Every structure is written in structure tokens, then in C-alpha cells.
């Protein structure tokens, strides 16, 4: 018995995990639309495709719970079919088939043509850059490569995403032009490792050349770099950042730790001295650059001394943006052979201490912005505020600039110059400069 009438043959794509998954869902939806299928993102539909994350324990748990939720809906007659794709499915397909058999079919990360076939659609090779974007209209992710060749001990991504594979520059420019034609103003470049871009196709690190081509795309005003790797960083990228106003003075470079013993065990291919020099070189080349990093605490064997080294270094480096995660012991990774010997409560305490330091640094850096004017893009209206971002902030993870909607009307998706009159730990308060 159907408990509610559902529109037939409406495909609902549910996305979990990172921006790479968002991108993959958008490509899937673009293919379905090109096959004249009715497709929605996280709305009601009688056919559900769950794009899962399998990176760390919390993400896996969320993915499994989401699958179970839709399987229950299927059993209650609220949806007809449930398909599962993405990283969790790639990594644990046999286990999932055994534990949750009521899913119609499981697909890995590279099985898009097979998934489309199961949905009654054909994979169209000619659809370069055709996506149904799910982000606000002013920004979109541009995935420039898939997979990763790095040997980091804690990371399961190569298991789920395979070897590094760059997308040709001309295809990315085509995609950027199509996004710009839809009104996208900001491109957020993503990959497991941006800095490796081009080594497989062009036999050299080619991120700078890609940026030189993307800045020519009319309508794109900001290009933002996410997920760079410290080892072998192509310094010519900084010259482009300095020269080209479209390339945001922003770099996301996950450094993970700084204790030499931990970096060696993590197989990061660098040292504290090299990493510190790299960051100083960044600051010298582009003094106005905002650097975002992420750190892992509680890695196997992390001593109190290792942690104190990390804390002191965070205080010294004064990152503009920083996130901190507790170590997750992932099977089939190199670190899984080590003993996960830091108690959970110690991991949580260490993460809290790092974020407390960062909160103070962020507050101090934000105070320096009071009285200044920042060019911001308005992402959305939320509650009593219009919410904007400067070039120094990426969506969802970084600081925001809040404008009182009762006093000022701003257009979502447009750029505006905001005078900053107040600053908190992570957010700024601004008002538009009256022309």
C-alpha cells in the first residue's frame, strides 16, 4: 500500500560528503536531464540515488544511516527504488550488499555509465561540462582531476578514487565557459591534490597554465584554489595569483601535522623546517594571501610532546583559516597497521585546544579588518542577515560577512563593497558603501 502518492519516475539525488561528491552528483544530474529524465536534488522522488562518503568514521556512519532511512521508505512504499553510489559503495560494496540487501544496486565511483543504465539513461560522452549545479548560482566547483597518487598513511582516498587523473585544460575551459553562461561568477578549483595537476597529461605540474587559461573566461570574476599539497608545490602558481586579479589571494593547503616524527609516520614527504619555509615563501610572494589549512590530532603514536610542538607552531604561524580533525583509524590504510593508541577523549581535548588557539588568532586578525572596505559576493539571505564572503573566504568552511537585512537590501549573487564596522571570532559585520 502506498502511503502517499509520488510523482512517478522522478529521480532524487542525495549528496553526502565533500565538494568532489557535489560535483559528481551534478554531473550525474546533467546526464539524466540530457536523457529527458526528471531529476531533483534532495527533494521528493520515487527513485533515490544516494551519493555516499566513505572517508572517515563519522562520514561512513552518516552514509549508512541515510541508506537505511531510504531503504525503510522503500519498504513502507514511500519510494520505489534505492540506488547507492560514491565512495562508501566503492570501498565496501560486498559488505553493504550483505548487510543492506534491500538496496536495488550499488555502484562504485567510476561506474557512472552503469548507474545511468540502471536509471534507464545512456551515458552521453559529448556532454563536456554539462552539469546541473546544486550550489548557489554565483559559485560552482570545478573538479580538475580525479584520484590521488600520494601515499599518505591515514588516507583511504586512493582506495576509493584510484590514481591521479588530470582533466585536459581545454575541457576545463569549456566547462568554465558553460558555467559562466549560467551566471556563475566564482570557480572553486578542487581535486584530491591540485598541485599534482598536469603531471600525467603534460609531464609537468601545470596548474599555473590552467589558471592562465581560466582567467580569460568572460563572466568569471573569482578563481579559488582548494586542496593543494605541500610537497612539490609549483611556485609559479603564486606568480599568477599575484598578477591576475581574478585568482583569489587564497590557498587551501592541508598540512595535517608538524612534528617530524608524525609527518614521517604519516608519509607526508616533508618536515617541519621545509613546511615552515614553504609558508614563509608564500607570505613573501603574496603578502595579502589567506592560507587555510587542516590538521589531524590523535594520530597513532602522537605524544604530548608532538602535540605541544603542533600547538606552538599553530600559534607561531597564525593561519587565517584552520580546521582540526581527530584521527580516524581506517582499514586498508598504511596507518591501520599502527596501534590507535590515543584515547578518544584525548583526541577531542587536543582538537578543542587547537581550535581555541585558532579562535583567538582569528579574532585578532578580524579586528584588523574593522574600518576597511572588502569586496564581497552575497551568497544568500539567512534570518535577519544577508550573508556575504570576501575573496579570503570559501563557502561553508570560512568566515562570513553579515549585513543587516532590515537596514540594507542586497542582491544575492552580486558583488558589493562592504565597510566593516565590527568583528567577532569568525564573522565580520559590514554595511554597503553608498554610491
| Secondary structure tally: strands | 18
**Envelope shape:** globular
Mean pLDDT: 92
Number of helices: 13
Taking all Cα atoms into account, the compactness measure Rg is 22 Å
Beta-strand content estimate: 15-25%
State the helical fraction: 25-40%
Could you please describe the fold and organization of this structure?
It is a single chain. This protein has 435 residues and is an alpha/beta fold. The chain has helices spanning 19-34, 57-75, 87-99, 112-118, 157-161, 169-181, 199-202, 207-214, 236-243, 260-266, 272-285, 304-317, 344-367; strands at residues 10-15, 38-41, 47-52, 81-86, 105-106, 139-143, 145-146, 165-166, 186-190, 222-225, 247-252, 290-297, 321-326, 373-382, 385-390, 401-404, 415-423, 428-432. β10 (222-225), α9 and β11 form a beta-alpha-beta unit. It is globular, with a radius of gyration of 22 Å.
